Amino acid sequence: MTELLARVNPELLRGWRAEATRLRLAITLLLSAGVAWCIQLAWDWGALGRAGALAFGVLSLVVTPIRIVGAIAEEHNRHTWQRQRMSALSPAQLMLGKAFGSTGLTDLAALCALVCWGLGVYMPADSFPLLGGQPEEMIREVQRVIREGFPLDAWLLVCANMFARFLALALAIRNCDRSTAARGRSFVVAILLSLLLTSPLTALKEGLTGRLAQDMPDSPMWFGLLPMDNDAFWALSGLVFVALASCWCWCAARETLSGGRFAVEAVAVSLGLGLWWAGTAYAAGATADFVLIEAGYGPGRIATAALLLVLVASAYLWGVAERVDRRRAREFLAAPSLVSAPAWLLILLMAAVTVAVHLVTGAFSESDELGYVQLNFWAVGLLGFLVRDMGILFLVLAGRVKRWPELAALASWLVLGLFLPGALAGADAVVGDFELYLLFSPISIEQSTGSLVIAALSAWTQAALMAGWLVWRSRS
Question: Tens digits of per-residue pLDDT, 47-57?
Fold first, then answer.
């Protein structure tokens, strides 16, 4: 078995030998069993299940990213990372070896927590904290519902574990050559992204398969193709999230081994997540009447709006998380091309296409009342602010900021997009009927049409000024 694993993935075998010794495995098993036994004796099986679910979530979304990023940083400090980059490892071997080789003990503890969670679900419980002294019939009904939903909930949390694992490794590989602070921010970003991108899976699953689905006139359909009120769709969704994160990680491993540059993960991951959310928004808009906005804002336009929001968030994320390369940024400004374009610029182009589709679908909608006009200006203004902020990022990369240029760009975004409009809104700064905070903030659809026009013009004026500045810098 050892010889087979050495041929298949020597990096994984090396990581397991260094991390998961027999003594450490035995101590982890005994410690996990002892803690579980104490919890069951002190309370009941239900408390053990809740503790197991909490422990599995913490180990998956917090401890695992920290262990992976710490292992990469340790190899970089020992000067062994460069030797591995020059080895004969394939991108898949490097990805799987680093993703699972340094987390053997953590994975064993997570498996024990998952077993405790399952025992707490399937073993009889005396009571439920939220039900208090309710009748036994209600307790049995709640326990039945929990047991029926446990396999899917456990699968989604396992997918969240894989998502956080590959995401943390991708960021660690991209930032391994940067400062210690940049490597330290990798696991923080991975934790936050894992929570933001995977927690809605469980929340939406509960909403679209539970009582909310029963109140809907029709079954929710993802883009009218796949039913969303069954467990198969959500199990497949968790698998899709893992595939997108592994694609990102594989591209990062391929880039660090070959020395080339591959921005395909930006398009694949951002577009994949965006389409998933767009399909979910389409299903909600098509089946739930309360989601629809006045003036016939149909599910198709809701889907494009959701896709636009995901692409905008992805552009900002890639701008901060992607490895900074001043030379490439300056070469692109001197001779722009899609081959040398950074990832966030590709996402910006996809966002522009999404806005165009949003406007075209609105032009052929059945109604052209106030909601139609307001949401059009919202999409146009949001794209303008995105162009402005990506221009700021280019300017910082091509400028004289020597340390942490991505943090300088982030500070500029916060000042222009949050602090300045917040100060204007807090001071009630108004000229006539126009609120001045709209000059520096994404458009609020509750405003009048005239205010929306002024706000959109302000966004694109700032974008044009930033683009002109970049053109001047590239020529000089």
Answer: 888 888 888 88
